[in-house]
Structures are given as C-alpha cells and as structure tokens.
Amino acid sequence: MARVAVIGAGIVGACCAFTLIRDGHTVVLIDPAEPGGPHAASHGNGAWFSPASVVPMSVPGLWRQLPGMLLSREGPVRLRAAALPGLAPWLLRFLRAGATPERASAIAAALGPLLRGCAARHAQLAQDAGVPALVVRRGLLYAYPDREAFEREAFAWGLRRGQGVAWQVCEGEALRMLAPSLADAYRFGAHVPEGGHCTDPAAYVAALVAASERSGAQRLRAAALRLRLHAGRLAAVQTTQGEVVCDAAVIAAGINAVDLARQAGDRVPLAAERGYHAVFEMQGVALPVPVPVPVMPSDGRMANTPTRQGLRVAGQVEFAPPGAAPDWRRADLLVRQARRLWPALAGDVAVSRWMGQRPSTPDGLPVLGRASGCPDVLHAFGHGHVGMAAAPASAQLMADLLAGRTPGLDPGPYRAARFARAHSPGL
C-alpha cells in the first residue's frame, strides 16, 4: 500500500482521504484551513445529492440567452465587466462545450456514472463516519408554474431520462404533500425520489476528516506549494510546513489546483465561478415554512434545502476578478426569490449570507485520473456544480487507480489531457 498525500480537505478531498484510508493506504491530508470551514465551496453549496444534475450548464442555444442573462440584474448569471478580458477564452470554450445536442448529450453521459446512486453512496459514508443523520433521502423536487413550463424543458429531462434518472410527476394534493408551504403559483412538480440532501455540509466534511483521523490519517494544516518530482516520479509534496514524502498524491484542491496540476504536466482552464447562499435561520424555533423535500423552482434556479441551521437558499453564478469583494446583492436576490416561493417567509426572519467559489471547467466535467506528466499524481478537482454529489464516485476512482484495480468508472472523459489542444497560444 502507498503513502498518499491528499491535497485539499473539501468534500472531494475528505471523501478521498476516508476512502483511501479504508483501502489500506497511509494518508496525509494537507489543507491550510479547518475542514468544512466557510472558505470552502463545500461549506455553502446547495447541499443536494442529485442524480438529476447531469444536465450541463452549457446547452444548445445558450449563446442567444447569455447576453441577456449577463446584463440582467435579477438573472441567475452575472459577469462583472472587469473579469471579461481574463475570462473570455473560458467562456468561449464553455459555449462550444454544449453547443449541439450531441455535445450536451456526451457531457450528460459522462456525468451520469458519477452521479448515479450518489445519495445512497453518501448515506453509507455518513453511516461509516458515525453521522448518519446528516444525510436525508427523501428525494428532490423541481417545481414549475404548470405542466407547460415543465414541457419547455423537455431537452433537459430527456438527458436525465437517458442517464436512468426517474421522476414522478405531481400536481394538486400530491404536490402539496411534498411542499405544503409552496406558493400557489407553483402547480406542477417533478419529484426525483433517488435524490437526497445533507443537513449540514460543513459538519459532514469535518466528520469525514475526523473519521479518517481516527482510522490513522494524518492531517497537516499547511498549503501545498510544489510537487517534487524525480525522473518523472513523485518524491514529495513541498508545503508551508515542510516536505511530505509520499508515493502518490491526489490533487483535490478545488480552485487552487491549477498550479499543482501544471507541475504534473497538465494545463487546465479552471474558472472561479462564484456562488451565494442565504439561510433563513431557525434560532432555536421552527421556521414558519415546513420544507420536507428540497425544492428547485424553474424560474429561480436555486436550491431550497432544509438544514440544521434553517432553510438554505443557494445558487447564482457570478464571474468576478480574483480577490474582488462579494456582491451581496446576489444573496439578497436569493432572499427575495425565496420569499416569493415561500410566502410564509415574508415576516421578520433572521438571514445569514455566504459566498464561495466553485472550481469550474468549461465543459462542466471534473478533472479525474492520472496526471499526464507523472503517474503518481492523480487529479480530483474541477467539479463545479456537482462536487457534493460526485465526491464519493470520484474518491472510489482514486482508490481503484491507486490499487491497480480496473476502475468501475471509466476515467477517459475526465482526463486533463482533453484540454491539451485548447491551450494553444492565446487560448
């Protein structure tokens, strides 16, 4: 068995560490911050385990809608003008990625195996880590004003059907049983029973790391700086707290993975895609809004998820220059949308806000598998909107590759080398 450095303690890194230590490896988990802390995308995501998230962000015809989406102050996507020069090459690749039905279908086909059974996988991980209550499997609800609005998304639901996602149509009383406080404007729903959610993503990540430590993993609070290679093989990971000698390394550092991946021979176009959330806090008493099942409205595109802290409303896509201050108007927009969705929230309920950065590739697929320049370095980053759901399958792929087993998941679609041709000068 190998001594493995896992770089990054977000949900992907935490799942990797937990899976590898249970596979018999010696694990050193490297991260400068506390697992589950507010610095990480894992802390504030929508908390969904969604097999239905196979639909890529880039779909046919998006280029027609994108200018209006970017210019709208109330839209789900926002581009700060100062970010455009640096982001333009990424955006062009993004638009090309799903420009045809065939391309979008290929992305969905690659996401399908990563997301299939994700709620069940997380339920098992949470059980093994001693925190089963953090994973709830009641399904997920997509809410629409009417059947016609649902049918306008036939392409997306067709992609889901092609990947084996099942759903149940619900109207009237059936819809109200799933979402009793939903606004009357929503009269149609698609319930995905295989889905689930996490009641506290931060605590879940921390619990997975703690369980890894109880099983013998070492946690090093440091930033990984360089990969020390010798004759094409990995010798050590250099960190701010010294050198970690290891046989293999898994780069699961999210948005900070780009430089480490480059050192291992891969240039990956990764964008810091900002997301926001707002939480209607419980403050020791029940909210006036019972939400038995997480809900995503068709016109809001935000996850409404019951958590231990309260109702979390998460979404938005914002592109901004590195280091720019958060635009809390994006979170305020989520608050207004939530109050339209749940009229009972119109009263005086305390709200907290958060912003984080999704590590997103142009094609919406994570970077998984062995690095091009060193077989001892494995990539596990760039999950974008599917990090929470895809983390267990990504971790299992890392374990299979390190053990020399035939992977249950074909790493082909996720290899970093898919971007090699895109990195000609000026791209």
Level of helix content? 25-40%
* Low-confidence residue ranges: 421-427
Main sheet? Answer: 6 strands, mixed
User: Using DSSP, what is the number of strands?
Assistant: 21
Radius of gyration, CA atoms, in whole angstroms: 21 Å
The geometry reads as: globular
Mean of all residue-level pLDDT scores: 93
Written overview of the protein:
The chain is α/β, with parallel strands linked by helices and 427 residues long. The chain has 13 helices and 21 strands. It has helices at 11-22, 41-44, 62-71, 84-97, 101-115, 118-129, 147-151, 154-162, 172-178, 201-214, 258-263, 329-341, 387-403; strands spanning 3-7, 26-30, 48-49, 77-79, 135-136, 140-144, 168-171, 188-192, 196-198, 218-220, 224-230, 233-239, 242-245, 248-251, 271-281, 295-297, 303-306, 310-319, 351-360, 367-370, 377-381. The strands form five sheets. It has a six-stranded mixed beta sheet, with helices on one face. Strands 4, 15, 17, 18 and 19 form a five-stranded mixed beta sheet that branches. Strands 7-8-6-16 form a four-stranded mixed beta sheet. Strand 20 and strand 21 form a beta hairpin. It is globular.
Short synopsis of the structure:
This protein is an alpha/beta fold and 427 residues long. The protein has helices at 11-22, 41-44, 62-71, 84-97, 101-115, 118-129, 147-151, 154-162, 172-178, 201-214, 258-263, 329-341, 387-403; strands at 3-7, 26-30, 48-49, 77-79, 135-136, 140-144, 168-171, 188-192, 196-198, 218-220, 224-230, 233-239, 242-245, 248-251, 271-281, 295-297, 303-306, 310-319, 351-360, 367-370, 377-381. The chain is globular and about 65 Å long.
